[in-house]
Amino acid sequence: MPKAKETTLELDLVALEHNYNYIRTKLHPSTMFLAVVKAFAYGSDSVIIAKKLEKLGVDYLAVAYAREGMVLREAGIKTPILVLHAQPSNYSMIIKYCLEPSIYSPRVLREFLKASKVEKQKAYPVHLKFNTGLNRLGFWENDIDYIADMLTNREELKIKSIFSHLAASEDKSEETFSNHQINSFKKIAREFNSKLRINPFMHILNTSGIFNYPEAQFQMVRSGIGLYGYGNEAKYDAELLPVATLKTVISQIHTIEPDESVGYNRAFKAEGHKKTATLPLGHADGIGRQYGNGKASVLVNGVEAPIIGNVCMDMIMIDISDIECNEGDEVIVFGKGHSAETFAAGANTISYEVLTGISQRVKRVIIGA
Fold first, then answer.
1. What is the Cα Rg of the chain in Å?
2. Could you say which of 5, 55, 264, 363 is catalytic?
3. What b-and-e string marks burial along 201-223, b requiring 16 or more CB atoms within 10 Å of the CB?
4. Which of 28, 75, 204, 285 fits as disulfide partner to 359, beta carbons 3.0 to 4.6 Å?
């Protein structure tokens, strides 16, 4: 594999296929697979990732907002797309691009019915989200009568699915709560189907839910972080491959005398002779200030080198005192050989934040196409 000559985010489509196939092994043959490609496909490239997933035969894609779905449609994606946090101001866009909105409250149900009527829609596909304990979005169980009243003798909408979201599926200490959510969802589904006399498909499992609660697959599951190589647990991380690897290069090497400082506000002061390297990326690229001052490390020729001093907008400095390296050498920030989960942990954050925070100014390089 060619070495990086500038800051790049390598996207490995072979790794993506491996992860998709591995997660599929946890599912019943009939279980549908929804792939989450919101936030530029977790900071990578939503179009490239969605096209690959479409070729692999994924049943659904999901984005957070309508404009993300519009981009995929304009790139030629034909797979059904669920918009998880659809806003009423974008309903005409949703209809224009044949996106399927999540309807999560009485207000948005009323608004989408209005938009569908204006657009002269019949049986437009929507998905109803119910809140079972995450307390972000979703109808309550006692909204079912209202939904039934609103939709009786109306032909504008067709309810494709009902769904919910587990709050702590990766946390074994919250197993009781997760099972409570699953059972609440089953109860909601029974009441919903009885009162509306329909039988939409159901989904509640995210990546960790797929691994930890396989009995709750229902008709579809949703996976985001798992597709990109992270399973929220060491034994699953070992089975998955990072799709994104952030690489950069050493721009310059300095020898620092005792008591000299490095970077803004003199945040790092050398206690002895030190050798430092400056790298061409910073908080404008998604490597925030929280990773500075020894909170995170990068890999230089296979050896960890801590970030020292404050992260700058376009540069970070690392301690390479005990590492054989030269200007122009490749540096791995996270990805293959240096997990984003590991990189994030020192700054008390998670892989999701690291991955989705990578700036669009960072060059994307596709491998394994």
1. 24
2. 264
3. ebbbbbbbbbbbbeebbbebbbb
4. 285
Same domain? For 109 and 220 the reply is yes
pLDDT band at 249 (very low <50, low <70, confident <90, very high): very high
Q: Are 218 and 202 in contact (CB under 8 A)?
A: yes
Return the beta strands (E) in the chain as ranges.
8-12, 32-36, 60-63, 81-83, 100-103, 124-129, 157-163, 201-203, 220-223, 244-249, 252-256, 261-262, 268-269, 274-279, 297-300, 303-308, 316-319, 330-334, 363-367
pTM of the model: 0.96
pLDDT of residue 2: 74
Does some domain include residue 141?
yes
Q: Which two tokens stand for residue 237?
A: 């991380």
3-state secondary structure of 194: helix
**Could you tell me if 138 and 130 are in contact, meaning their C-beta atoms sit under 8 angstroms apart?**
yes
pLDDT confidence of residue 46: 98
Measured CA to CA, the distance from residue 250 to residue 280 in angstroms comes to 7
Q: Give the C-alpha separation, 358 to 350, whole Å.
A: 14
Dihedral pair phi/psi, residue 123, rounded to 5°: 55, 45
Taking only the tens place, the pLDDT of each residue in 137-179 is: 999 999 999 999 999 889 999 999 999 999 999 999 999 999 9
| 4: in domain | no
What is the span of the domain harbouring residue 345?
A: 244-367
Distances (CA, A) of 3 to 246, 334, 343: 12, 15, 21
| Nearest of 84, 71, 73 to residue 34 by alpha carbon | 84
Which of 177, 202, 228 is a domain's end point? Answer: 228
Same-domain pairing of 78 and 172: yes
Q: Are both 271 and 334 inside the same structural domain?
A: yes
DSSP 66: H
pLDDT tens-place string over residues 28-53 = 999 999 999 999 999 999 999 999 99
* 38 in active site: yes
Inter-CA distances, 207 with 24, 159, 260, 332, Å? 11, 24, 47, 26
- Do both 205 and 65 map to the same domain? yes
